[in-house]
């Protein structure tokens, strides 16, 4: 009787283990299928189920899959956290480097280029030409994001044949000149000296005209009140309005310059990436 109970118990345990393993395999395959179909939320739930029940660590890539699912759902914080786990358990150096790139890309999406750079500093210069080029591209992107354009130019330059570096240097030179031309403090000072001038200079004619007419109108009204009722009445009647629109005008001009520089920086970055894509086959 005891032998029969033992045999039944062992058989039941075997059947249960086989059933659980089969369920994990099916769940993993189903999760991959859902991800390929673009059902990222469903895929995420299934991958998380695999991670929870996979006590034998059969699917070492499951945390990468979870990270990919969060990334596809635009949850970059959770994606980065799961990539961190995947990095720790990666079984090859090349896989670890690729996962670091994925984590850095999460920070790129959040415009947190300093954190991305910090992740990339962990990597030693890869021997693989593909990984080396990708490493330089990510470093260049990070430096560009934090405003270190000389370092960005150097690393972007590593991606090109020598004859292409002149074109790249010209893009960066034009970019630096543009930054000098539309320095926010310069635009602010222009609007402080003459209301509306900063807006005119940045190409916002209507906003510049509005600022000039509004502040000019207050100034004219102040003169009339001064002549009719005296300086004190004029000062008390219009000073608060003048201060409000005068300071608002030059602050707005500065904001326009900041926005203009950000827009141009994005355009320059896209130009550089396009140059990379067009010459990717010629990369060293």
UniProtKB/TrEMBL annotation:
Regions that span the bilayer: 212-236
UniProt KW keywords: Membrane, Signal, TPR repeat, Transmembrane, Transmembrane helix
TPR repeats: 60-93
Signal sequence bounds: 1-21
SUPFAM superfamilies referenced in this protein's UniProt entry, alphabetically: TPR-like (SSF48452)
Protein name: Uncharacterized protein
Source organism phylogeny: Bacteria, Pseudomonadati, Bacteroidota, Bacteroidia, Marinilabiliales
């Amino acid at each position: 009787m005891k032998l029969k109970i033992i045999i039944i118990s062992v058989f039941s345990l075997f059947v249960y283990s086989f059933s659980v393993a089969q369920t994990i395999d099916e769940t993993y395959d189903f999760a991959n299928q859902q991800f390929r179909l673009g059902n990222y939320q469903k895929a995420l739930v299934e991958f998380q189920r695999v991670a929870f029940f996979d006590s034998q660590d059969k699917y070492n890539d499951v945390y990468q899959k979870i990270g990919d699912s969060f990334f596809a759902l635009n949850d970059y914080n959770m994606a980065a956290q799961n990539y961190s786990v995947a990095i720790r358990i990666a079984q090859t150096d090349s896989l670890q480097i690729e996962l670091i790139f994925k984590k850095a890309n999460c920070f790129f999406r959040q415009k947190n280029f300093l954190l991305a750079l910090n992740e990339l500093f962990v990597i030693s210069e890869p021997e693989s030409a593909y990984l080396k080029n990708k490493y330089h591209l990510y470093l260049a992107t990070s430096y560009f994001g934090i405003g270190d354009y000389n370092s960005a130019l150097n690393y972007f330059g590593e991606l090109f044949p020598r004859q292409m570096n002149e074109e790249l240097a010209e893009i960066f030179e034009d970019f630096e000149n543009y930054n000098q031309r539309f320095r926010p403090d310069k635009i602010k000072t222009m609007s402080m000296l003459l209301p509306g001038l900063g807006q005119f200079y940045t190409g916002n004619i209507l906003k510049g005209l509005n600022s000039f007419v509004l502040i000019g109108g207050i100034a004219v009204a102040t003169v009339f009140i001064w002549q009719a009722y005296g300086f004190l009445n004029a000062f008390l009647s219009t000073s608060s309005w003048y201060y409000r629109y005068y300071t608002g005008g030059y602050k707005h001009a500065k904001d326009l310059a900041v926005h203009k520089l950000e827009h141009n920086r994005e355009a320059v970055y896209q130009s550089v990436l396009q140059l990379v894509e067009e010459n990717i086959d010629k990369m060293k």
